[in-house]
Amino acid sequence: MLTIDAARGFTLVEALVAIAIMIVGIGGSAGLLLQTIRQERESGSRRTALRIANSMADQLRAVRRPDGRAVLAITGMDAAEACIDQPVSCESERAAERLRSTWIAEAGSALPQGASASVVVPDPRVPEYLISIDWPAAGGGVERLRMPVTT
After folding, report:
1. What is the pLDDT of residue 64?
2. Orientation angle between helical segments 12-62 and 90-110, nearest 10 degrees
3. What phi, psi does 117 have (nearest 5°)?
4. Domain-located, residue 95
5. Cα–Cα distance measured from residue 59 to residue 68, given in angstroms and rounded to the nearest whole number
6. How far is the C-alpha of 146 from the C-alpha of 71, rounded, in Å?
7. Is residue 23 part of a domain?
8. Which helix (H) or strand (E) segment is 149 a member of?
9. Mean pLDDT in residue range 128-142
10. Kind plus residue range of the DSSP H or E element containing 105
11. Residue 124 domain flag
């Protein structure tokens, strides 16, 4: 009598299920990879913004008015207007004006397109500054860095 041995191996259904599971796994891995790349890009932008803000803070500490007040030209004010009350401080204000234009250009070129950088002086009588850098986030929205600086 002839007997038929059961064939060993996978059936077509088992193979299709295994392929479907593999495709889901690869799709999940691809999504995870894309999320990781986006997070790394955002992290790089944050590191760049922090580096630029720290550089600006160091430069603000180096540029001082003789009367101890904040340099106002760093905010975008004209240097001649900023030193009208103290002509002795005009050199510091001119240096701050040059510093501002260089700093804004550096922030614009190093960060994603649409980034903006500014410095605010809360009280002109005190040498305190607030450095602000905004840039578009990779997933939409806006990232912000605010750094108070006292010189």
Report:
1. 82
2. 170
3. -135, 140
4. yes
5. 16
6. 19
7. no
8. strand 142-150
9. 90
10. helix 90-110
11. yes
